[in-house]
Design brief:
Distance between the termini of chain A: 43 Å
Radius of gyration of chain B: 27 Å
CATH topology of the largest domain in chain A: Rossmann fold
Order of helices and strands of chain B: EEEEEEEEHHHEHHEEEEEEHEEEEH
CATH class of the largest domain in chain A: Alpha Beta
CATH superfamily of the largest domain in chain A: Thiamin diphosphate (ThDP)-binding fold, Pyr/PP domains
Strand content of chain A: 15-25%
Structural class of chain A: alpha/beta
CATH architecture of the largest domain in chain A: 3-Layer(aba) Sandwich
Largest interface: A-B, 9 and 14 residues
Oligomer: heterodimer
Strand content of chain B: 25-35%
Helix content of chain A: 25-40%
Distance between the termini of chain B: 59 Å
Helix content of chain B: 25-40%
Largest sheet of chain A: 7 strands, mixed
Chain lengths: 325, 365
């Protein structure tokens, strides 16, 4: 057992898969010699060489196009888009080509590729480098969407994404890179489409993703201490496929659902879960479903504004407290 | 318009809302009964002060509130119905509706603890968990209960009680009573009981033992002379009232019977005036109908004694040197040892017994 940072776990996951399977290759901007702008890929170039670990020009379309072509011709590429905001410049490749190739070729061509990206707020990078765009990705049929919250899940889910026969968008959270966690030694492979109950409670169910998971856990501790409200916290981990079984089970136990989302409110992932729960668990609900989200605004660069635009522990506590009666 | 607890008597300070005649949202005409209220001694319907719609009920049934306190709101025609805080929330969540339907529960039976009194899932589950199990609940004291509790506790705390009892052979009384029973019932419309005979004997004995009909005041005993006889009337779970037969010492058995009957009826209908429940100088309590052998009654201060009549049943009795079957009952008196001593009380009881067993009761009817 070793304690790894979230950022170490990225490199460990990639290394585990590249060592296991020669067809796994890795490409992106500054991922090789520089070890990644977030230092998530240190040592990979040295270990696996420039044929399999390729620095690319500053062209997201080129990275995605190359990854798509490599996948079509038998490799299992991992492509890095430095900031998830930049999906917008390669969205045609991802949304129209990669997501639809298996379908439009009647299954003749599969694209076993992973697009890793740094997602989310917290680094004062401003409106174009801080977005949470997981809801963009989950809106496209044909893409799988993963967003882990711990080093262990990074390694395990990254391995699962590489081994998946279809394109997976893998959202790492910038704000979590320095967080630490225990990761057992040896090979780790998780399963896509599975949520995790990270705290079991009785009164309310909080469903969260990525950086909102540790905040929700902190909020749950405060609710227990200050209000005697016992909260279940579910880490969604995978938006597509979505583990509705676990989410429904945990909502049915408490009759209360709160989603904590970093993406902007309109059409955020929580809206989909709220809609599913309203349909499937209506007769088990004991109160309105409440979404706690970033408002529908461009994310500010100023630190105080950025920190308060996304859901805070205070906001989670107050919202649950206000609606729990 | 606000509806407040009315002043229902000069000395009345509070009242208990027994029942609402109208629900929230229901229309009410001016002077139509709006709620029933209970004070120390009376129950009455209170008429609505206005025509309109009951927009809020602020006091639950069973609650005791001070005179002048706001009880309800009536929205008069033309005015906007106002939503008052404390109005019961009737919105139910899906899971609560489902649970109520599954278990055949009525939402009104469940205490809501959620926001605005809303019934939550946990409230229903708690209710279900409780159901079947013996339930602990608080039943607030009625006015009568409160007054009784205070006076009995005061009595027990301040008066040194002594209990004495005598066995009485009621054969002479019973022969007369049973012979007269049918005609009495036909003429008077109610049954002639033993109680007026006992009352008459007590009044007669008091003439010879006036200290029994007295009050302790300061360092002395006030002898009342006239006998105002309190007769306890049981109101079932609602409590006990003690209407007073004034100048009972001047009444014959028949008149005592009629007066007691009249007062008991008024007590059960809660129509007694304040005058009719005050000023007793001696009290008789009758538990006989329940079959009790002996009751140790508590003195109602400032009186100094109280007599209990218990069940009169046929028992083997030694008459002369033979066994006979006789209607025997126990008369038990609690007395205030500050007022007199055991010998005086015993002599009084012996005198009551002698009268009951020796008098020619036929002449009294």
């Amino acid at each position: 057992m070793a304690e790894l940072t979230y950022r170490d776990a990225v490199a460990a996951g990639i290394a585990q898969e590249m060592a296991r399977d020669e067809s796994v290759v890795f490409l992106g901007e500054d991922i090789g010699a520089a070890g990644g702008v977030f230092k998530t890929t240190l040592g990979l170039l040295e270990r696996f060489g420039p044929r399999r670990v390729r620095d690319t020009p500053i062209s997201e379309q080129a990275i995605i196009g190359a990854a798509m072509g490599a996948a079509m011709t038998g490799l299992r590429p991992i492509a890095e888009i430095m900031f998830s905001d930049f999906f917008a410049v390669c969205w045609d490749m991802i949304a129209n080509e990669i997501a639809k190739t298996r379908y439009m070729t009647a299954g003749q061509i599969a694209l076993p590729l992973v697009i890793r990206t740094a997602n989310g707020y917290g680094s004062r990078f401003g409106a174009q480098h801080s977005q949470s765009v997981e809801n963009w990705a989950m809106a496209i049929p044909g893409l799988k969407v993963v967003a882990p919250s711990t080093p262990l899940d990074v390694k395990g889910l990254l391995a699962a994404a590489v081994r998946d026969p279809d394109p997976v968008i893998f959202f790492e959270h910038k704000g979590l890179y320095s967080t630490k966690g225990e990761v057992p030694d040896g090979e780790i492979v998780d399963r896509l489409g599975t949520a995790k109950v990270v705290r079991q409670g009785e009164d309310v169910t909080i469903v969260a993703l990525a950086a909102m998971v540790p905040k929700s856990l902190q909020a749950a501790e405060r609710l227990a201490a200050e209000d005697g409200i016992s909260a279940t916290v579910v880490d969604v981990r995978s938006l597509v496929p979505l583990d509705t079984k676990t989410i429904f089970e945990e909502v049915r136990k408490t009759g209360r659902l709160y989603t904590v989302e970093e993406n902007p409110r309109l059409c955020g992932w929580g809206a989909e879960i709220a809609s599913l729960v309203a349909e499937e668990c209506f007769y088990d609900l004991d109160g309105p479903i409440v979404r706690i989200t970033t408002p529908h605004v461009p994310l500010p660069a100023a630190d105080l504004l950025e920190d308060n635009a996304v859901p805070t522990v205070d906001r989670i506590v107050e919202t649950v407290r206000r609606n729990a009666g | 318009m606000d509806v407040v607890m009315p002043q229902l008597g000069e000395t009345v300070k509070e009242g208990t809302v027994i029942a609402w005649r109208k629900k929230v949202g229901e229309r009410v005409e001016k002077d139509e009964p709006l709620f029933e209220v209970n004070t120390d001694k009376v129950d009455m319907d209170v008429p609505s002060p206005a025509t309109g719609v009951v927009s809020a009920i602020l006091v639950a049934e069973g609650a005791t509130v001070r005179v002048g306190e706001k009880l309800a709101v009536i929205s008069e025609p033309g005015s906007q119905a106002t939503r008052e805080p404390g109005v019961q929330e009737t919105r139910l969540s899906p899971v609560v509706r489902k649970l109520l339907a599954e278990h055949g529960l009525d939402a009104a039976a469940i205490q809501g603890t959620g926001a605005g009194g809303r019934i939550t899932r946990d409230d229903v589950l708690a209710h279900l968990a409780q159901r079947g199990a013996p339930q602990r609940k608080v039943v607030p004291f009625s006015r009568i209960r409160k007054v009784t509790a205070e006076r009995m506790a005061l009595s027990w705390r301040t008066i040194p009680h002594v209990l004495q009892a005598v066995e009485v052979d009621f054969l002479p009384v019973e022969e007369v009573r049973l012979a007269a029973a049918e005609a009495w019932k036909a003429k008077e419309g109610f049954n002639l009981t033993l109680l007026p005979f006992v009352a008459h004997a007590v009044c007669a004995a008091i003439r010879e033992f006036p200290n029994v009909n007295a009050s302790v005041e300061g360092d002395g005993l006030v002898l009342h002379g006239a006998v105002h006889l309190g007769v306890a009337v049981d109101l079932g779970t609602e409590g006990l009232l003690v209407p007073v037969v004034k100048d009972a010492g001047n009444l014959g058995v028949a008149d005592l019977a009629r007066r007691m009957r009249g007062l008991a009826e008024k007590a059960r209908d809660k129509r007694l005036s304040a005058d009719e429940v005050s000023g007793a100088t001696y009290t008789i309590s009758n538990s006989g109908k329940f079959g009790t052998l002996l009751t140790a009654p508590i003195i109602d201060p400032p009186q100094v004694a109280i007599l209990s009549l218990d069940a009169v049943t046929k028992r083997p009795a030694v008459v002369g040197d033979a066994l006979a079957v006789r209607p025997i009952g126990v008369l038990a008196q609690s007395f205030d040892h500050r007022a007199f001593d055991g010998a005086y009380s015993a002599s009084f009881l012996r005198r009551v017994k002698e009268i009951l067993e020796g008098r020619d009761w036929a002449r009294d009817l």
